[in-house]
């Protein structure tokens, strides 16, 4: 019987999970379907529940998950793309473990700097006002097409983001779509019909 020798790099690839382009990861405070091919989240779900703010992010930066092929710091250098949190750090500042979990690259998208620091951030602030009244379940879908930009560093830039917000007590949905570009209107004007 002929002995089969598998090269070390191939063995590492197969055992690392890189052979599965899309993976589901449960980080306890959020669940993410992640594309190792695009090096970006595809969809991410979290709960916003009026947690107290007990810790500060300080100079915390994103970190790479072991054995998962994600984007990294090089994808965000010298361009317009921010390291955009999908599950917001401020929503999970109740303890250091939760806050640190939001800084995984699994929770990071290539997001236009003006969107991330502008209308996207303002909608996140509104979510924290809404969750004072009732818990929210929030699902964010990232959109990619054949025309999506692939950076020289390997990560693919999302075309846009849809945020589905479910109000758990009143059983109401609110949905918003944002192109991944500098916003030209207020966050409220990004509201779309929900398909639930």
Descriptors:
196 residues, Extracellular Endonuclease, Chain A, two-stranded antiparallel ribbon, 4 helices
Helix-strand makeup class: alpha+beta
Coarse morphology: globular
Largest sheet: 7 strands, antiparallel
The CA-CA distance between the termini, in Å, is 57 Å
What is the CATH domain class? Alpha Beta
Helix and strand element order: HEEEEHEHHEEEE
Q: How many helices does DSSP assign?
A: 4
Unreliable spans: 1-18
Q: Could you name the CATH topology? A: Extracellular Endonuclease, Chain A
Quote the beta fraction.
Answer: 25-35%
Can you tell me the CATH architecture?
Answer: 3-Layer(aba) Sandwich
What's the arrangement of strands in the largest beta sheet?
1-2-3-6-7-8-9
Instruction: Give the averaged pLDDT, no decimals.
Output: 92
Work out the count of structural domains.
1
Q: Can you identify the CATH superfamily?
A: Extracellular Endonuclease, subunit A
Q: Helix amount, in percent?
A: 10-25%
